[in-house]
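To: structure desk
From: M.T.
Subject: fold request, one chain
Message: Could you run this one when you get a chance? Sequence is below, nothing fancy, just the single chain.
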Amino acid sequence: MRHFFINTPISDAMIIDGADARHIALVLRMVIGDTLLIADRDGKTGKAEITGITPNAVQLRLLEFIDDYTEPPIEVWLVQGLGKGEKMDFIVQKAVELGVHGVIPAITEHCIVRYDLAKQADKLARWQKIAHEAAKQCGRSYIPKIFPVTRLADVFGYPELTSANKIMLYEGQASLGLKQVLKTAAQQTYLLFIGPEGGFSSTEVDLCQQNNVSIVTMGPRIMRTETAAVASLAAVMYECGDLGG
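Reply: Done. Structure tokens follow.
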């Protein structure tokens, strides 16, 4: 069943407008009487019937609320060093599919790309749209938030992340493996730090250690930044979330 998000709370009568309405009417060619799944910004999910349809607005009638089982039992936030080209697009999309709760694009010492404020705003809008589409495609009831581009040191100022189990993947000499840290983890919130193409600097590693971040390795091979993001998220979700079924 097709899945869409609405900006208002679920109620007896609702409207989908904008691009989603055009997609429903002109691409999917749905008609009055067809049913679809909807989710609101609070993560509530329901089944609704189309009662009216034009390319500008689709009118819905709520049939029933549905218990949601698509969100993982843990919150995983990804702090991702800015990658060049379309790598960030790929990382955001796959992270959402894997169940990430939010993505924080981070400026680090070895970042190749540098965005001015206008470009940052454009990128943020693009990444949030990718997150929205990925959440819709994989049937999630929550659209992960993409934070504005921020400096690595400023990440530790987010109050909602102070109690998270913080983990940095580092290709240098890390004595702990990711599996070891996850085996002993008790928190419900995780903060994963993934470096850009050039990895993290020793100064950044020291900064993270001072902020109670576990420095870990994922084995003897050096991964590309997009591979490390996907692999580490999958490992956390498998060990502590719902990826194992």
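Reply (cont.): The mean pLDDT is 91. Let me know if you need anything else for the meeting.
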